[in-house]
Amino acid sequence: MKDLTPRQIVAELDKYIIGQTEAKRNVAIALRNRIRRLMVKSDLQKDIVPNNILMIGSTGVGKTEIARRLAKIANAPFTKVEASKFTEVGYVGRDVESMVRDLVEHAVTLVKESKNEEVKEKAAIIVEDMLLDILIPPVRGTGFSTSNQKENFNPDNASEQELNEKTRERFKEKLKNGELEERKIEINVKQSSPAGIGMVGNGMMDEASMAGIQDMLSNMMPKRTKKRKVTISEARKILMEEEAAKLIDFDEVKEQAIHLTENNGIIFIDEIDKIASSSGKSGGPDVSREGVQRDLLPIVEGSAVNTKYGLVHTDHVLFIAAGAFHVSKPSDLIPELQGRFPIRVELTSLTQEDFYKILKDPKNALTKQYQALFESEEVYLEYTDDAIQEIASIAFSINEEVENIGARRLHTVMSHLLNDYLFDVPDSIGPNSKIMITKELVNERLNSLVKNRDLSQYIL
Ligand SMILES: Nc1ncnc2c1ncn2[C@@H]1O[C@H](COP(=O)(O)OP(=O)(O)OP(=O)(O)O)[C@@H](O)[C@H]1O
Ligand SMILES: [Mg+2]
Where is the segment annotated Disordered (predicted)? Predict the structure, then answer.
C-alpha cells in the first residue's frame, strides 16, 4: 500500500469499475495525500486535513463501489452510513457518532487479522503439539504426564518413551498430510459468557461507556469450559483461535486500531442529498434535516469521539459523501458542510458500451459470477460476444424506458435470462454439459418483455 501512486490506485480501481475516471482520479489523490501527509516532518502535518470528496451521480453508477474498493486497496478501516438514517424518528443528535464507533470496530478487526497473521505460525506449532498430546498422550514421567494411560505398563520406561516419540512422529506426519482431518477427538472449549447482560440505558450514559461496561462485566464472569467432540480439522480451528488470542496483546491492538482509524479511516456517507433541504423553505421535515447536517459537522470537521477502545479524533479521517442530487443541489447543504467537501466529482451516467464492459471486464463481472455458479455443478456456461452486446443493449433500453437504475439493471436482466437454466441444473441439465448463450437466445428470452413496457416494469 505504501508505494501505490495515484496512477496505480486508478489502475487497481479499473479492475472493478468501468469508466468514472474523474471520480477515480480524485479518490486516488485523496488516498495518496494521506501517505504524503504522514511523511511531512514539520508541525504542518497536524494541520493538513484531508480533502473530503462529494460524489454526485444518479443511482447505480458506481459511487458506493468506488469507495468500497478504495478502502480495500488501502486496507483502510471503512464504514458506510446512510445520511437519511439520521432523519428517522427516534434519532438523537449523538447518534451520528456511531459511525466513528463502527469505523474503530472495523479497524480492530483489521488489526486483529494482521496480528493473527503474524502469530499464525507460532500458534500452529503449539496447536500441533496440543493435537498430538490428545491423540498420543505423552508417556508418564516426562513431566507432562496425563492420567488414564493404563495400557502403558511397560516397565522399560526409556524404550516406551522412544516408542511414544516414534508414534508421535508418525502421527505428526499424518497430521501434516491431512490424513486425520476427519477423526473425532475431545477438546475443552471455552464457552463465551452469556451475551448481552441486560442493561437499560437511562440516558445518563452514552453508547460507548455502556458497551465498555458490558465488556467488563462479561470479562468478570468466570469462563466456563466444556468438553466437545469435534473432528481434528474443527479442533484445529478452535484451538488456533484460542492460542492466537493468547499470543496477541489486546492493548496493543486497541492502540493500533485507534491509530489506524485516525490516520487511515474512510467514512462513506451515502444519500447525503436526502438531508439537504431545498432552499428557502422552513419548517416541517427540513428543520430536522438541517439539524442532522449540524450534527454531522463536528465529526466531519474533526472532533474527539468516545468509543469503547478510547478516544478517536476524526480530524484526519477521510469522508466521502455521495448523493444523486436530483431534487436538491449540493449548494442546498449548509455552507459549513459544503466547505468540508471541497472536491466535487460528478459521475457520468453509464452508456450502453459501459454496460457491455461491466458485464465482461471487471474481475467480479456478472457473466463470470454466473459462470462460476454453473461451474460448481460442472456445467459450462459460455457467451458469444454479440450476446453480451445484446444484453447490454436491452438493459440500457429498459433503463431509458422504465427507470434508470444504472448498472443494477444488469442484475435483473441477467437473472431473468438465466432463470430457467438455474432451475434446470442439475436435474435436467447434468454435469459436463455446456450452455451457449447466443444473441438469438437472449432475444428469444427477453424481447417479448422489452417490447411490452407494462410487463417489463414488473419483471425486469
Ligand atoms: N462503473 C461501474 N463499473 C462496474 N460496475 C458498476 C459500475 N457502476 C455500478 N456498478 C455495479 O452496480 C452495482 C451498484 O453500484 P453502486 O452500489 O456503486 O451504486 P451507487 O452509485 O452507489 O448507487 P446508489 O446511489 O443507489 O447508492 C455495483 O454492485 C456494481 O457491481
Ligand atoms: Mg450507493
Answer: 145-165
